[in-house]
Every structure is written in structure tokens, then in C-alpha cells.
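(Fold this chain)
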Amino acid sequence: MTTLYRIGLKPNCPVHQLVVGGGCTVKRTQKVTGRNANTKRNDVNGVEMCLTDEQINAVIKGVKNRVIRSTTGKKRRSRVYVKSNKFFRPEENDKEASAFVYIEELEEKESSFQAFDRPSLEETHRKSLEVLKSKAEEVEEERKRLEKEKKAFDSHNREMREALQADYNDLDAQRAALEEEKSDLAKMLEEVKKAKEELAKAKGKQEENKPKPKK
């Protein structure tokens, strides 16, 4: 036996959809009813599904097993994480998904759809797979973007390293040239010192060889 439920996300939920228990829960859906000139598009909150007790329990269990994590900064993003995943590590800003999900049991007269329009579990599964496929494509696009940014970053780093190495080599060559000039100056100073000493000796000898004045 199945029961008709409306399962949806509250307006303040950081994400627009949540896949749990084989079904996809959203904030709002649009359902086309009627035919030909009587066709109408109905905006409804959440999703209406006919579920067994086992299925609704699986949905409740799945909701309790998920948290929503939002990032900060210019590109704020929110993602859903499964707590039972062995790679899951809780963070301070994690929010329980159950805080944003509502489940209402509906009477037949409360349904927004005609009986033949009510989504089956198979239809819900199909839509869930479409959502997951779309999500996987988004993740792949994000991976490619990050890979491209990484390559650009690595290329920039390589250019910076090469430029710094060239500057270092240039400074090293300048240091070697300065050391050589310093050595040459030291030799010149030594030669000047010797020349001064020889000049002083020559002057001393001149003084000694000068004829002394007669008294």
C-alpha cells in the first residue's frame, strides 16, 4: 500500500535539490496538467510522490544521514555530504539537511495533480538519475576548470622560477666581477705602498749623499 506525500525543501535551504531514498527533492516544481486548450502549468512546492512505508522510511533515513556545507567568499557554493561516507569529515559550518526538508502526508483531495499525473517511483528514479548526471557533468566541468587553472599556475610558477634563477645568475656574475676588481685594487694598493717605500728610501739616500755645508 502506498501513501501520497509532498516532500520538499524550505525556501532558506542552501541547495535547490536533494537526492535521498532514490528520489529527488526540490524547492518548487512545475507540472503540466490538462490537454490542448486546457493545458496549464502548475507551480507547486516540493514533489508529490506515492511511497510505501519502507520507501518513506528510506527517505527519512537518507535525510538524517546528510549535511549541507556552504563555502564563503565571492563564489559561495553549497554541497550535500553523506555522513556515513568513510571519507566524510564534519566541519563547524555543517548544517543538518533535516532542518531544511519537510514531509507532508496528503489526502487525495489535497493533491495538486490529477491521479494519472501523479509521478510514479520509476519516474522519480529517472528524474533522480538525470539530476545526478547533470551534477556529474557540473563536477567534471569544475574539474577541467581547476585543472586548467593549475596548469596556468604551474606555468606561471615555472616562468617565475626561471626569471629568479636568471636574476640569481646575474647577481652571482656581478659578485664574481666585484671580487675580481677588489683583488686588482688590493694588488694596486700593494704596488703603490712598495713604490712609496722605495721613494722614501731614495730620498733618504739623496739626503745622505748631499754635500754638507762648510762651517
Observations:
- The beta strands are 3-9, 17-20, 23-26, 28-33, 40-45, 47-51, 66-70, 78-82, 95-96, 101-105.
- Residues 121-209 form the longest helix (89 residues).
- The first strand starts at residue 3 and ends at 9.
